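Schema walk-through. Below, the input block comes first and the output block second. Nothing else is stored per chain. Lengths vary across the set, and this one has 470 residues.
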Amino acid sequence: MSKRPILVLQMQRMGDLILSFPLFLWLERTYPGHPIWVVAEEKFFRPLMTISPRVTYFPWEGVQVLRQNKYELIVNLSIRSQAATLAGELQAEAKLGPVAFKGGVTHILGNWQLYRASVVENNRHNLFHWADLNALDCVPLSSLASTKWPLPRTLHKDSNRIGLFLGASEEAKRPSVKFWADLCSELLGRGLRPVLFGGPMEQGMGQEVARLCKGPVLDMSGKLKLGELIAVGQSLQLLITPDTGPMHLAAWSGLKVLNLSMGNVNPWETGPYQNDHFILRSTMSCALGCWSCTRDQLYCHSPFTPSRIAVAAKRMIVEDRASLQKINMPGLRMFLTARNADGLYRLNQLSGSKAQAGDLLGQFWQQYFGAVFGLWPADGSEQVWAEFAAQKPELAAKMGAHLPRLGKEFSRGLARSAPLDDSFWNSCPLILRQYTGFIQLFLQNNDYSRESWIRVLSYYEQLAAILSKN
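--- output ---
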């Protein structure tokens, strides 16, 4: 008798689909013998099938076939209401992610799926990568820790072709045409040969970059399908790219990536997932966890100068890690993608300013949520909090002083089963919003039931116990 399938609903963009590839592999190992079925956009999954893990893809137009089966597990990674409705209609032993129940009410199932929803517009101190969050509700942490990802390839030292992917989904996430043209000139001056890439939307941009550069630049923008991009990528030493779907495609296919992480992205969440890829990010305090910029211009773009990027790229190609650590790029920090001791994605800093308060707070909240959701003991959060309190005593005191107010608010909520004010989470100090954002969504997701208030008090007691030790 065949085993019931596992169904993943991933109807987002190409980058989101590629970041789901690790989940597909882990599901195959965690549920041996269960077929893995995936609902995705055909325009994305069709060209990726040659490099995708072994799953069966369904376009949305074919979902009627899915209604004929019962599933071992349904994981809804989509934000579309149709996906939540489908997840609610289908029969399964377990469901995760947004699920629409009778009456049209949608609830998010799974601690980590709910946590991810809580960091929407509230991700300043989130250090969990999307690919890991896809899996933590249904795959043992030990599976993540035991996974060994291939390192990006390094071609013969005489190879000098550098790819530049020009586009990204939003203007704030990508450099200007002038930047790309100047970068081409800087690379040519260092004996490197730039090759321009992009989708159909970037074809005009590629032509303008090549015209402004006035050098021997190969413009392939708008000329390659995804499969062809993968093939051409085998001949490149490095791909310089903003945070975009083709960046994840390059990293998955083994092409070394330098991610120019600018604008409203968080490299901890959507950086290249495999190990040993490079990321450059502004040191501005607002840059980490930026959701949308409200300033008069994109100041975080300013430190990204073509000459700096070209110098870094040259050193990355020759694997000169020591000189990369010494590189002076004021306003920028350079990271190398890696894994922590638990197997989760992390960024190791290679150069730039020392750790900031936000870095330690991110580590603390990562340890705290991992402890309350059962990934590990509370020791790690206690250690990080002790370090934070020693380095930033004023901020630590501010958090401690606000904690009793939260306790009173939660006690009143338990007594009355009354909803929190909509502004509750973001009226709290910034250092607490990773926590309050989750608490508010948790209560809303559970209709402010008595059981959910009791759980909130438990989360509060765990937090208070950690903070009281310093």
